[in-house]
Every structure is written in structure tokens, then in C-alpha cells.
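FIELD: query
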Amino acid sequence: MDDSKKPAKRAVARKAAPKKSSSHKATKTNESKAAQPVVASPEVGSGIASSATVMPPTDSNSKKSSSSSKRNWLIIGGTIVGIIAVFLLVFGVLIYKYKSDNRVVQVVANIVPYPAEKVNNTWVTYGTYLFEVNSIKHYYQSQSSESGGQQIDFTSEDGKKRLKQLEEQVLTQLQQEAVVRQIAKQQKVTVTEKEVKEQVDQITKSAGGEDKVKEVLKKYYGWDKGDLQKKIRFQLLKQKTSEKLQDDPSMNAQAKAKAEEALKQVQGGGDFAELAKKYSQDSSAANGGDLGFFSKGQMVPEFEKAAFELQPGQISGLVKTKYGYHIIKVTEKKDDQVRASHILIKGVDFDQYVEDQLKQAKVNQYIKP
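FIELD: result
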């Protein structure tokens, strides 16, 4: 190789070297700048510059947006609460001031539990009160002279007075029902769906079928089948609660002691009729306890069994029925009938017990008929 040409190549190489170094520095500079998170560089291309214009919101902007969103929700929530408050207020005025019972109020009262009264800790709603009042009104309005019933015009002066009496009776009835539910809860008495269905099926069969029951309920009370089920459920609850209390020895101890005292005097040779007048607690007492003749199926099972097993002149021991304690004396038999007298000492009287509990209850009434 001609050595004269070598310097020229080195010169070319030296010239090229600075250019390479300069480009490398520029690249490093750009990479360094690109690594900075949000600073837009005039040296970078227009695409990157554009990306700087859609940068994510800063913390400050995010907080402002969140605050604005919360404020909007508060406004919406406050507006809704305000509308509900006005709604409740309007219907509260219609119910408590104007005693309105129109269809719209009935629908609202079935949804919103406006209180009609409170018995101890049990609320009675205005919807329940209206249901009972309207059932009674419907019954009287369905009556006619042809059917032997008495129709009442509740728009007349006499009708308005009668309606006021009925409304007061309904409030008392609902207080008693509240007490019954409280006693049932204390006694842990419940009613099953099966028990309700059996009772409803029996009524349906006796009435002549499903369509007949619906027709009668609608005509006389304005009820549907669901309303009947509610009524049956409560009646069963009351019946089962009453039976449980009547079977509770602690609730009948006083009555049993009195019956044992009467039995002791009867067995000691005392005059049965005179002792019946002295001790017995039913209407037969005035007749010396004489019940006259009766056949099977006319008395409660326990009483019937004891009476038909006795011979004329014989006297039973204490016989417990749902009415209390009986002492039975059979006086005559003929064919399939028995004549007997009895001394009845009543056990716990459930209706009276409910009434006594209601007298002790704390009752607040918000509806004034």
C-alpha cells in the first residue's frame, strides 16, 4: 500500500469521529429528557409534544373533579330526600288532620307505615286501621232489606255517627289484637302455613268452592283470598294461645282449688243443686246446674265422655275442659240422650285475660275518629 495515502484515511477517520460523538451525545441528551415524566421538550417530535397535551390529571385536578362529583351527588341526594319529606308530609296531613281515606291514601298507607296507635312496643298502622274500617263499611253497604240486613248510609248524619262508633271499636279491636300477638310471642305460639291452608280449604269446601268463596268475600267485605288468609292466621294464633294458657296449671291454680273445694262438699253429701247455685259460674247455676237433655256431639268431648259414662245418680270427679273445671251429675237417661247437671268453675278466661293485659298496657293513639 502506498503510505502517502494513509494520512488521508486517518484524516477522514478523525473527521468522522467527532460527528459520531456529537450524535451519541444528542441521543443521550434526548433519552435523558425523554425520561423526565411530564416536561415537553422543543427538541422532540410533534407526536411527543401532542402527547404532552393529554397528560393525566394532576392530583389537584383529580381532587377538584372528585369534589365536584361529590357535590353533585349531595345535591341529587338532598333533592330526593326533600321530595320524600314533602311526600310524607302531604300524606301525613291528609291522614292526621283531614282523616282522609280515599283510594290514593289507602295505597300509600299500605306502603308507608303511618302509625294509627301503639300498644306497648307494637305499632298499629293506619293501613291496617283503614282495612278494618273499610271492611265494616263494605259489609253494611252490601246489606239490603231483601236479604234481611240493615244497610247504612254513611253520608247521612246518623250514618256518620254510626261510622264514628265503628271506628272507635276498630281501634279498640286492634289494641286487643296487638295484646294477643304479644301474649302469643311470650308463650312462643306460632301458626304454620299448613294450618292456615287447611283452615282455608275447609272454609272453601263448606262454602261451595273457590269461586263461591271469592264472590262472597268480595261482595260482603271487599276482600280477596289473601285477606281471608290473614284473618284465618290471626284467629288460629288467638285460639292456640288461648288453649296454651288454659292448659297452663299455674294459670288455673286458683280455679282448680275452688273446684276441689266444691267437689269435697258434694262428696261429703252436700245438696248438688244448692252447691251449683253457690259455686257454678255459668247461666245454669240459677237452675241448680241443670243442663237438660243432650245428645252426643252437643258438648265438648271431655264433658260428653264423662257424662255418657255415668249412670243416673252418679257424680263425676273434676272434668277439665276449655271452659274450666266441671263436676257432673247425671240425673236421667233415655234413648241416646243424657240429662245432667254440673258445677262449673271457670279456668282462665282468655278474653278477660287479654282485657286485663290491655288495661295495664301503655297505649298511644294517633287517630281520633
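FIELD: remark
The CA atoms of residues 133 and 169 lie 9 Å apart.
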